[in-house]
Amino acid sequence: MASTTSQVSALISRYSPDVARQFRVTRAFIRKYFPRGYELIFENYNALGCGYPLTDRGSGVVVSVVAYPRWITLFFFHGIELSDPDRLLQGSGARIRSVRLEPFSLLRSSAVHKLIIQATKRHQGDFAKAPLLATLVKSIATRRRRRLPAPLVNKVKKAKRKGSGPRGSV
Known about the structure:
Number of strands: 6
Number of helices: 5
Shape: globular
Strand order of the largest sheet: 5-4-3-2-1-6
Structural class: alpha+beta
Helix content: 25-40%
Order of helices and strands: HHEEEEEHHEH
């Protein structure tokens, strides 16, 4: 069986070089906020994610980093409770909010730092008692969507397709 490090590297390598680099940078950046606890790796049909909970169960994730074919997103699992004066948080669900890292430089902004600090603050005492950060691969998809971005379709070519114009024009 492959080591956890090689498994994670193989999963990341399925992405374009730019998205793979951004995922590695974001993962390293977020791990600094979580020196203790767990890093759970989940791959599903649509994306690759790393969640950071106190235990080895996904239900306790505080923050996660998710790679999609064109971008990286940070998810805050209690995002509805966060103060967001810079209006970075997206989503309208009952709990979770996210920040798409576009532009990627947003990762190192003070606004994102403040959101991460807020999200982890309520768990600081529990994380201090947790074991040193351990990475666990929880799931690897057997079927997955293409990890490289699909080529953009030229809208002009679509409009000029045979039969797409008005009928009966002279």
